[in-house]
Specification:
Elements: H1 20-28, E1 37-41, E2 54-55, E3 65-66, E4 70-73, E5 83-91, E6 107-110, E7 122-125, E8 130-132, E9 135-138, E10 148-149, E11 160-162, H2 170-178, E12 183-187, E13 190-197, E14 201-202, E15 213-214, H3 216-224, E16 230-238, H4 242-255, E17 258-262, H5 273-279, E18 283-286, E19 291-292, E20 298-302, E21 305-310, H6 314-333, E22 343-347, E23 351-352, E24 358-368, E25 374-377, H7 388-391, E26 395-399, E27 405-406, E28 411-416
Parallel strand pairs: 5-6, 13-16, 13-17, 14-15, 17-21, 19-24, 22-25
Antiparallel strand pairs: 1-12, 2-11, 3-10, 4-6, 4-7, 5-9, 8-9, 18-20, 20-21, 22-28, 23-27, 24-25, 24-26, 26-28
Helix pairs in contact: 1-6, 3-6, 4-5
């Protein structure tokens, strides 16, 4: 089902609210990964999504190597007791010895990571040996294979080490480098445009006149979208003029995969986003998510581009971005969007509220109760325009819509800014 396939009643402003999770699923309908790929070296791979599975170029480790500093020995040289062996060679990490040791009983001084000499099948830690001038006494016969990392023990040659559609991080870069993979194919960057609408908005470096405010939403959204897999473009502030907004949307539809706007998505006389989208040949509908703050938020399309219309109030814009825009970006990147993971927490505050929508309120983790559960408290008044409430917050507590009051000791879902939302 796509946005246009939805029943008309669910896209009207008078429609009943749907759950946050249902709205999130609806926002993802018809959203597909971008096509196209490019080759990047390992230094540029972090934060990108590979398009195919990657196999090891060779085994890890590539040769049998010592796991300890000590002495390489042949277990066949031992009887039941200790043995004194001449130290006939020294093998550091690096090129293997270029000389034949012969078959006489002998030991080789060896270091961690060094190749095991041919015919030797165990390493004895130096702490367990008595060292003499030119020889070493080993107190007992070791087990064959002791302190040896066998070739391929970590990864066999040709084994899959990074599945397709993986968000590459430093761990993947490490194993790719170790396995001799210098570059990988990744999905092209998702092209994202951000714009604000509003005659009252000014840039942070501009002086304010009466009735004007600085545009915080666009700066916040651009910061949230700074990631290696995103090609980000700031379209700036568009005046509250339907023709100007429509022109910006029409141009964006040709150049971007996702267009994110803030402000102007309600139904007031100065809210022009929907009119402009339709004029630009696109489609848009309110999600009617049962979420507070967050009304209104609208989802649509501009050609092949996904469109996200966020509310103008900054806390509302943040909450709706995290719940509805972020999964669209993740899907476009070629990944499977995972629902934010909640931690169960206990309210260390009490308040009356109006039942209705699920409310996400900024909270601070204040410790743990006797059962080890996190305690959360409110330290500032909430409000969709109150940015200060976010500054010392650790995350958002979810107050179910059916509650008319929160009581101290109530159990709530806590969504931390990191890692639940990866803020």
């Amino acid at each position: 089902m796509t946005l246009l396939d939805l029943p008309k009643s669910c896209c009207s402003d008078r429609a009943e609210f749907i759950s946050v999770e249902a709205a999130r699923s609806r926002a993802l309908q018809g959203v597909n990964p971008v096509t196209g790929e490019e080759v990047v070296g390992l230094r540029a791979a972090r934060g990108r999504v590979n398009t195919s599975g990657i196999a090891a170029g060779h085994a890890l480790p590539p040769f049998d190597q010592s796991a300890m500093d000590g002495y390489a020995v042949r277990t066949g040289d031992f009887s039941d007791g200790s043995i004194a062996l001449p130290v006939v060679a020294r093998q550091p990490a690096g090129p293997a010895l270029g000389v034949s040791i012969g078959e006489q009983p002998a030991a080789v001084r060896i270091f961690t990571g060094a190749p095991i000499p041919p015919g030797f099948d165990a390493v004895v830690m130096q702490e367990h040996c008595e060292q003499h001038c030119g020889s070493v006494t080993v107190p007992r016969r070791p087990e064959a294979g002791q302190h040896i990392r066998v070739s391929g023990d970590d990864v066999p040659a040709g084994a899959l080490i990074v599945p397709a559609n993986t968000l590459i991080d430093a761990r993947h870069v490490a194993i790719l480098a170790a396995a001799g993979v210098p570059s990988i194919n990744v999905r092209r960057r998702v092209r994202v445009a951000v714009l604000s609408t509003g005659d009252e908005l000014r840039e942070p470096d501009q002086q304010l006149r009466p009735g004007e405010i600085h545009d915080s939403n666009r700066a916040m959204l651009l910061s949230l979208l700074e990631r290696p897999a995103v090609e980000l473009v700031d379209l700036g502030r568009i005046p509250d003029d339907p023709a100007s907004i429509a022109k910006a949307f029409e141009a964006a539809a040709r150049d971007f995969d996702i267009v994110i706007s803030s402000g102007g998505v309600s139904v007031g006389e100065e809210d022009h986003i929907r009119t402009a989208v339709f004029a630009a040949g696109g489609e848009i509908a309110p999600l009617n998510a049962s979420i507070k703050p967050g009304k209104p938020i609208s989802i649509g399309r501009l050609g092949t581009a996904s469109l996200v219309g966020l509310p103008g109030n900054p806390v509302s814009a943040l909450v709706t971005f995290l719940w509805f825009a972020q999964p669209i970006i993740v899907r476009r990147m070629g990944l499977r969007p995972e629902a934010p993971r909640a931690t169960r927490a206990v309210a260390a505050f009490a308040e009356q509220r109006r039942p209705g929508r699920d409310e996400f309120v900024p909270v601070v983790v204040a410790g743990r109760d006797r059962e080890g559960r996190l305690l959360v408290e409110r330290r500032q008044r909430a409000g969709s325009a109150r940015l200060s409430s976010l500054i010392d917050a650790d995350g958002l507590a979810r107050i179910p819509g059916e509650l008319s009051a929160v009581r101290s000791g109530d159990t709530l879902d806590l969504y931390t800014f990191d890692p639940a939302f990866s803020l």
